[in-house]
Amino acid sequence: MSDKYDVIVIGAGPGGYVAAIKAAQLGLKTACVESWTSEDGKSQVLGGTCLNVGCIPSKALLEVTHKFEEASHDFEGFGIQTKDVKIDVAKMMERKAGIVKQLTGGIGGLFKANGVTSIHGHGKLLAGRKVEVTDKDGKTATYEADNVIIATGSKPIEIPPAPFDGDHIVDSEGALEFDEVPKRLGIIGAGVIGLELGSVWARLGSEVTVLEAQESFLPAVDQQLAKDTLKQFQKQGLNIVLGARMTGAEVKRKLVNVSYEDSKGKQEAKFDKLIVAVGRRPYTDGALAEDSGVKMDERGFIFVDDTCKTEAPGVWAIGDVVRGPMLAHKASEEGVMVAERIAGHKPQVNYDCIPNVIYTTPEVAWVGKTEEEVKADGVEYNVGTFPFAANGRAMAANSTGGMVKIIADAKTDRILGFHVAGPQASEIVAQGVIAMEFGSSAEDLALTCFAHPTLSESVHEAALGVAGGAIHIANRRKKK
């Protein structure tokens, strides 16, 4: 038996590494177990899916391809003349890898600075809060802790009609590693990941077809914004087919032959590459001994209460392995909450104020309830919207698509939902998160002074619009 710890965290993704750092900062003797190994097999890789093959590399590619798209098609309108703009895919991938390496290496530095012990190997929770770690050579060691935090994350879902082959049919990780631009690209799933990856390769010249089984586009998004965004994606050349149920995929002569069914019947399509982006599932394979005391549902999610406690004493679980949205920032907040609760404090994550973002162009971001959800709850409400087309800063930036939408309780004026589609929506949504975290009313935002000219003035105008008092657009007439 090795040294006993106050806290052992299994997993060093955005939930696990944050939990470990916070626990150490609170004076707890902390270790973090991570099995990810570098390609050369020599060193441990920290940061999990988000930093290595998810949020960070995808944003690096989205940023580069957005600049390429602007330089290729939009600069002329600014009076900037460009000719023969080219993309160097290898250089783009090299830059992405450099950003990932810098950030993941930084976590190792933070572990050292905060006194977190990093343990390289596959962690498995045993009974009695013991953690068995198997290293890359198959050797095992067992550690003991007063508290164990399970933060093993998630992995892409593989579907029977389109098994991954690592070359022609790939998951989201494989889609970040293409060494050339596919001529025809198929994507299964019009969710966040599918749309972001589709945008990356469409901007570089791929003919992109997105097949989505659901009849509605982005059903989790406020449908007023979702419908407007769908039109903008279609203008960009994304062929999004709704109600398309995948039935098979076969690789023949270096092409992926896809069969699916939609409202018109059986359909077929050929692609150079096929990305399967139908969601992710909890990565709990081999993470729990049968007698660990931790219970899971049939999909592999670990049962926890509102404070992320499992049914086993002293065992917690956070992030993608538990209920709630699979978001890096949600995992991090849960990690902080659990570490502080172990240290004797009583924080609570406000799950009603977790922002969601799609990093396409336009960006789509929201917090709180959609108009459809508020209506279904039977709550009387008021809505204020303001289009970026009427915003001076958006005009100057040639980014006038989309809008800000604020939904408020008709009786209390409390903000129930805050939705943005358009330029810098991922940043603007934080204003809604802060307002809702403080229990703000729409009037509170309406009475706040916003700098001019800024994109954020659209928030001000939408808030004014809740009461029918927007200045820079005509207001809807109130029904008498």
Automatic annotation (TrEMBL):
Cofactors: FAD
Q: Which residues form the Pyridine nucleotide-disulphide oxidoreductase dimerisation domain?
A: 354-463
Q: Where in the cell is it found?
A: Cytoplasm
Asked if Cytoplasm is a keyword of the record, the answer is yes
Q: Which GO terms describe its biological process?
A: 2-oxoglutarate metabolic process
Entry binding sites for NAD(+): 189-196, 212, 279
- Listed GO MF terms: dihydrolipoyl dehydrogenase (NADH) activity; flavin adenine dinucleotide binding
Cite the entry's keywords alphabetically: Cytoplasm, Disulfide bond, FAD, Flavoprotein, NAD, Nucleotide-binding, Oxidoreductase, Redox-active center
Tell me any Pfam family this protein matches.
Answer: Pyr_redox_2
Q: What is its EC number?
A: 1.8.1.4
Q: Which cysteines are joined by disulfide bonds?
A: 50-55
| Cofactor binding comment, as recorded | Binds 1 FAD per subunit.
Keyword Ligase in annotation: no
Listed under GO cellular component are: cytoplasm
The further comment given in this record reads: The active site is a redox-active disulfide bond.
Under PANTHER family, the record lists:
DIHYDROLIPOYL DEHYDROGENASE (PTHR22912:SF224), DISULFIDE OXIDOREDUCTASE (PTHR22912)
Name the protein family. Answer: Belongs to the class-I pyridine nucleotide-disulfide oxidoreductase family.
On assembly, the entry states: Homodimer.
Spell out the protein name for this chain: Dihydrolipoyl dehydrogenase
Source organism:
Marinobacter oulmenensis
